[in-house]
């Protein structure tokens, strides 16, 4: 049996949890979120601890992770950091729009979801929010505009620390 299904989640003192049969509502310093529950699982709360019971082990592990991420998100929040690297590549913030110049003949405008906060410092974009899925989905959406180049070093939109993991391929003339 997976250790994740046996995990007991402790609720920090800064987070308030309200539990009903259909959903969990969490509120903390970084925001508030809710999670809809599957009818096959039973969420048990005792004082400052939560655990999950179910006959379906896959659902138990999944909802254990979802509840843990929910609590962590409202307590500390999540952030994704993107580096925009390339000659002439620029990032600006206009109202609730992200304006990117990434080597196209036109500017790319991306509307920012209301639940996310964006900070820009130079060519580094920091996406902050309380929902893990929304933060990293928005980071992935931005990254699709100009993914890291596999032929040239330091060109494209990178997740922080990702530039060390990308293997460069030789060009046509060097493949021989």
Topology:
Elements: H1 3-6, E1 9-10, E2 16-19, E3 23-28, E4 31-36, E5 42-46, E6 49-53, H2 57-75, E7 78-85, E8 90-94, E9 97-101, E10 108-111, E11 117-121, E12 124-129, H3 132-143, E13 156-159
Antiparallel strand pairs: 1-6, 2-3, 3-4, 5-6, 7-12, 7-13, 8-9, 9-10, 11-12
Can you describe this structure?
It is built from three helices and 13 strands. With 176 residues, the chain is an alpha+beta fold. It has two domains: 3-75, Ribosomal protein L6 (Outer Surface Protein A, domain 3, Alpha-Beta Complex); 78-164, Ribosomal protein L6 (Outer Surface Protein A, domain 3, Alpha-Beta Complex). A hairpin with a 2-residue loop joins β3 and β4 (31-36). The protein starts with a helix and ends in a 17-residue tail after the last strand. The mean pLDDT is 88.
């Amino acid at each position: 049996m997976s250790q994740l299904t046996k995990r007991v989640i402790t609720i920090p003192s800064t987070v308030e949890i309200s539990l009903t049969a259909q959903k969990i509502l969490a509120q903390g310093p970084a925001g508030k979120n809710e999670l809809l529950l599957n009818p096959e699982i039973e969420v048990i709360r005792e004082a400052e601890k939560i655990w999950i019971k179910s006959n379906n082990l896959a659902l138990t592990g999944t909802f254990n992770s979802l509840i843990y991420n929910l609590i962590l998100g409202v307590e500390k929040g999540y952030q994704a950091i993107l580096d925009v690297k390339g000659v002439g590549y620029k990032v600006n913030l206009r109202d609730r729009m992200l304006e990117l110049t990434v080597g196209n003949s036109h500017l790319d405008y991306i509307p920012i979801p209301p639940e996310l906060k964006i900070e820009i410092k130079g060519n580094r974009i920091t996406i902050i929010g309380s929902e893990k899925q929304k933060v990293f989905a928005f980071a992935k959406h931005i990254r699709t505009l100009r993914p890291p180049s596999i032929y040239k070093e330091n060109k494209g939109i990178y997740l922080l620390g990702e530039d060390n993991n990308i293997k460069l391929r030789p060009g046509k003339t060097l493949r021989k």
